[in-house]
Design goal:
Oligomer: single chain
Strand order of the largest sheet: 2-3-4-5-6-8-9-10
Distance between the termini: 17 Å
Radius of gyration: 23 Å
Structural class: alpha/beta
Largest sheet: 8 strands, parallel, barrel
Number of helices: 12
Shape: elongated
Strand content: 15-25%
Length: 366
C-alpha cells in the first residue's frame, strides 16, 4: 500500500527512553512533558505510554482539556500558566496545577474563590523569558504561601543554554536556584532533558532534595528519542528514536543534464540522471528550509534533495542507474537517518522538525 508523508511512532521507544531518563535521576519524581502534541508524536498516545510518570506537563489550556476529556486523571501542570482570570477558573475546574510567572497571575489567584489549585512558581535564573527575578523571589514566595487559592506551592526554573555542555550559563543558573531553594520546604524542579543528560554532575548540588523526594525532573524531547545535547545523536545517549517520518515515491522520470528542477529552477544536474518525486512537502512538515543536498533514504540507500521543497512534493536525485519505482518506500528521517542530521542541513533544531509534522495522514503507532 502506498501512502503520503506520515509519522510512524514507536511507543515502545518512548517507554524505553522514559526508563533511561529515570535511571539518570534516581529518587526524583518525573513530570513527562507532552506539550505540542507530545513534540509531534501524539499527545494522547504518548500520555498512555508514559503512564508511569508522576505528572504531565503541557503548555496550553486546550491540551489540559483534551487530556481530561480522554479520561486522563494524572496530575497535569500547565507550565505556561493562564492568560486570564477565566482561564484560571477553567484550570481549577480541570484540576490542573498552573505555572505562575507574573504579577497579574498572582492577582487573579488572590481573587479566586473556587477550589484551591497547585502552583509552580517560576524563578528566572538567567533565561530572561518567563519568571520572577532572583531578587523578587522571596517576597513572591511569601505572597503565594499566604494565598488561600493555592493548595501546594512548588518552585521551578528553566535552563537557557543547557544544550551546550561547554557553556557555564547552566552551572551559574543552578547555583542561583540552589540559593533560592535552600530555605524553601516544598518541591522544586530544575532539570529539563538537556539539564538532566548534560549536567548530571552540576545537579548533584540538589541531591538532598532528591533524597527527600522533593526534586522533580521535566524531560521533554528526550522522551521521544531526540538528543537535547548539541553535537550528540540520540543513540549516543542510549535513547531510541520514536518517530520515523516516511513516505513513498510518487513519480520517477529521466532528467537531462542542465535541466532545472522545481520552483525557481535552483537545482540542475551536471549529468543525465533519474529524478524521483516524493509524496512529501512543507504541507506535511518537511520544511521548505531543507536545502538541496539533504539526504533521504530510498530503498535503503542515500539520495539527495534536488531543488526547493514544494507543499506536497519533494524532488530527489536518484542517480543515472536508478531502478527505483513508483510506490517505493522513503525515509525522510528515522532508521538510518537521524532527525538531528536533517536538522543540521535545515539550519534548525530537531525539536522544530518533529513538532512541525502536520499529520495530514494519520500517524501509525507500533
Amino acid at each position: 500500500m502506498t501512502f503520503g508523508a506520515r509519522a510512524r511512532i514507536r511507543l515502545g521507544a518512548i517507554k524505553h527512553n522514559f526508563q533511561i531518563i529515570k535511571s539518570k535521576a534516581p529518587g526524583c519524581r518525573t513530570m513527562a512533558v507532552i506539550k505540542g502534541n507530545a513534540y509531534g508524536h501524539g499527545m494522547l498516545a504518548a500520555a498512555r505510554a508514559l503512564d508511569a510518570a508522576d505528572a504531565f506537563g503541557v503548555a496550553r489550556l486546550s491540551e489540559v482539556r483534551a487530556l481530561r476529556d480522554a479520561g486522563i486523571s494524572k496530575p497535569i501542570v500547565l507550565l505556561s500558566g493562564v492568560l486570564s482570570r477565566a482561564d484560571l477558573e477553567a484550570a481549577v475546574e480541570l484540576k490542573a496545577s498552573i505555572g505562575v510567572h507574573n504579577k497579574a497571575q498572582i492577582d487573579w489567584l488572590e481573587k479566586c474563590r473556587g477550589d484551591a489549585v497547585g502552583a509552580w512558581l517560576k524563578i528566572d535564573t538567567g533565561m530572561n523569558r518567563l519568571g520572577f527575578h532572583i531578587e523578587e523571589a522571596r517576597d513572591v514566595i511569601a505572597r503565594l504561601q499566604a494565598c488561600k487559592a493555592i493548595s501546594d506551592l512548588k518552585l521551578m526554573t528553566h535552563f537557557a543554554n543547557a544544550d551546550d555542555v561547554d557553556d557555564a550559563t547552566t552551572k551559574n543558573q543552578i547555583e542561583r536556584f540552589v540559593h533560592i531553594v535552600e530555605d524553601f520546604t516544598g518541591d522544586v524542579s530544575i532539570a529539563n532533558s538537556a539539564g538532566l543528560l548534560g549536567w548530571t554532575g552540576a545537579l548533584q548540588a540538589l541531591d538532598e532534595l532528591s533524597a527527600a523526594g522533593r526534586l522533580w525532573i521535566r524531560p521533554g524531547i528526550a522522551l521521544y528519542g531526540v538528543s537535547p545535547i548539541r553535537g550528540k545523536r540520540a543513540d549516543e545517549l542510549d535513547l531510541d528514536a520514536a518517530m520515523q517520518f516516511e513516505s513513498s515515491l510518487s513519480a520517477v522520470k529521466s532528467l537531462r543534464a542542465g535541466e532545472p528542477v522545481g520552483y525557481g529552477g535552483t537545482w540542475q544536474s551536471e549529468h543525465d540522471t533519474t529524478l524521483g518525486i516524493i509524496a512529501a512537502g512543507y504541507g506535511d512538515g518537511y520544511t521548505r528550509y531543507i536545502p538541496s543536498g539533504t539526504p533521504v533514504l530510498i530503498n535503503g540507500r542515500r539520495v539527495h534533495v534536488a531543488g526547493v521543497i514544494s507543499m506536497d512534493l519533494t524532488a530527489v536525485d536518484l542517480g543515472p542507474d536508478a531502478i527505483d519505482k513508483v510506490g517505493d518506500p522513503v525515509v525522510l528521517w528515522g532508521d538510518g537517518l537521524p532527525v538531528e542530521e536533517i536538522a543540521e542541513f535545515a539550519g534548525t533544531v530537531p525539536y522544530q522538525l518533529v513538532t512541525g509534522v502536520t499529520h495530514r495522514e494519520a500517524p501509525v503507532y507500533d
